[in-house]
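Researcher: Please predict.
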Amino acid sequence: MEVARGAQARPILGPLRPVGIPEPIFALNLALSSKGPSATAPKIREQIQIIERNSRATGDDRAHGNLTGTPYAAEPHIMGKSAVKSAREASTALRSVVAGDGYLCPVNDRNSATFGTSSGMSDGHMVPIARKRGRRAFLDGNFVRRKLPLNASEYCIWDTELAGFGLRVRPSGNYFWFVRLRHRGKHRRITLGRSTELDAMLARSQARRLLAEAALDGLPKRVVVKSTPTMSDFVATHFDDLARVWKPSTAKRNADAWKNELVEHFGDILVADVSKADVVRWRDACAGEREARFNRAVPVLAALLKYAEALKMRRKGSNPCRGMPRYKRQAMERYLTPAEYARVGRELREQEAEFPQQVAVVRLLLYTGARRSEIEKLQWDWVKPPRLMLPDSKTGPKTIWLSSQALAILEGIEKRDGSPFVFHGFRPGQPINIHGWWNKFRSRCALPDVRLHDLRHSFASTAIMDDVALATIGKLLGHVLPETTEKYAHLADEVVAEAAQRVSGSLASAIGLRT
């Protein structure tokens, strides 16, 4: 036997009443069977007879459950006023009895055409009737533009496609989109907006997003990076912001590294798409003659991508330059010997008449161990004998101590009106640049491999030869970290070894051994 079409199961709170049996009769029979012999049993039977008599008076023979065909073919009975009154009295008397509506299916094939008034749960299986459904409709723009009925209190219309999405109709005539969801064990109703201000499709998409977020709450999520510009556009837009934390010379050097080295390999790649493989390919392409360029440019790329992470254009910790090994370069340490010092001094005296400023700069470099830029850009305001007080340098504010020879050089230079610099360039208001002149000068000295920075190394070497402590040398050179000065430690070891050799030779001669 088929179940009635459209029947929907629901929790059964008590015995279900078969269709075709009046509710009062069913309730009284249920009470009679549950109470058994008692003082109220005759009264209950009397109520059943009254209801049956009143029902027959209506002419509806089906009120007793005289079903024809299947039990599902029965229609609701029609009772008179007396029957309705009796039913109300029976329901009031039996408030503790919980009964629901349903259909009675026979247990076996003996399908009797009629259920007696005493039919109960033992005569068949109960199938519940579908519960009444709430107001439902497909909520779109056409529906919300209709003039919906208004009630004394607000009511909700649920969407037929998206569970939890609904429209709240208020007595004032205002409609509001909302979504009802379950978040961490609690039911929440979130208002999305007024129907006149929020489009139906947009409200639906917002409701779908909120439902998805509630369903996925607590699960691991993949970080999604929004669309990003290319590296060329990123540098054009944000390089000036990043350069504010750099010194002007550093900003210029980093800008040159981007234009001359990085833009060729990374200019057309999106900021979020720069990967470790791209950096490795660039590193391999720089093998050989361009290794030094790679070593200077990779920190610039790392700084740009780190700033992109700060702007949420890349995932945090995704910098592909992190841990990228640099090419190992042979340390360029060149120290002048006493004979080479003599050649440099001779040529300086010959060039002094023609290039007095350039010669003065080189002599100050020799006597102070300062960096080239610190002497070339030296200003008169920074000269505080017996020292130079530089407000800024590679390592920050710096003090350069002046010897008597260095002071004599500065005293022999005349100040020029309108220029703050000690050494003037070819252009008014610009400091001197001796790089080009030095290339020609070192050729005259037969020292083509000596750089201006090697004069700084030679200053430290001479100090070590004179038994000056490494800590003191670090202060003379302006080193912030002692590790920077330790690279000259091997020179100190050589001095100690040479002293040991001299002492040992003297002792050997004293005891008559060959040296």
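Model: Residues 1-14, 58-80, 93-101, 109-119 have pLDDT under 50 and may be disordered.
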